[in-house]
Structure prediction request, 291 residues.
Amino acid sequence: MRCPNGREQRKLDYTLRASIPTEPKGELTLPGAATTITRLGVHEQALTDSIARARRWLVAARRVVVLTGAGCSAESGVPTFRGADGLWRQFRPETLATPEAFARDPKLVWEWYDWRRQRIAEAQPNPGHFALVALEQRLGEGFALFTQNVDGLHERAGNQRVWRLHGDIWLLRCTGCGHQEQNRTTPLPELPPRCGRCGALFRPGVVWFGEPLPADVLQAAFAAARRAEVCLVLGTSSVVYPAALIPRHALEAGARVVEINLEPTELSAQVHLSLRGRTGLLLPRIVQGAE
Prediction:
């Protein structure tokens, strides 16, 4: 998906490909006999300029939409699906987070989710979470946060205008009568847990691979993206659809899109600013002064 031709020149005016590593990798070819200190200084100045530009956009904006992914929670110690810590026992998460896996071995699936719940219970919101709280406090109803994370760290930090695209790991949903309840007990006393009303198995209240996202949340996300003046894309690989369409809707509607991620993504070449680094380090620098 690409921006309409009418916006391309304006986008070129604003675009600064700030794909800046936190440390220089390999030998850089710069004028003269540049030292390591000089190279670091060049990178830091470019990063500082990019942060200042993003801050100016936020200061001027009255409507901001945010998409967050696993990278934001990883900075708090929550294991990611695709990272080096994604493997559990000998299983990949993609083989456990499916309706088929639950039907085949619900106890195994719940053992994995119980382990994840315990890890999440130990985690604390990081400075990136709190920067989003500050932004919401300034913007009020002009702020909308859509998260692919199921851990609840945004809410624990203090965000209220949060929509969960992939569900809630603390929610138990009965596979029999459909009853739902919040349960933050870790570890769970019985695996797999059962519904106290009908005795059927509970499943985690998350969206599994192969299941549709909640239609109302997804439509709210697309609508917010089309209204936004600035879109922040934080800690996500931008490869999981349809969530990855949210910033693309914002681009098409003319919003300025700022990405923060450790690695380049499929979205990086399309956005106005793409910053390499941790959300917990870079986002507070952007939000500071923009509250």
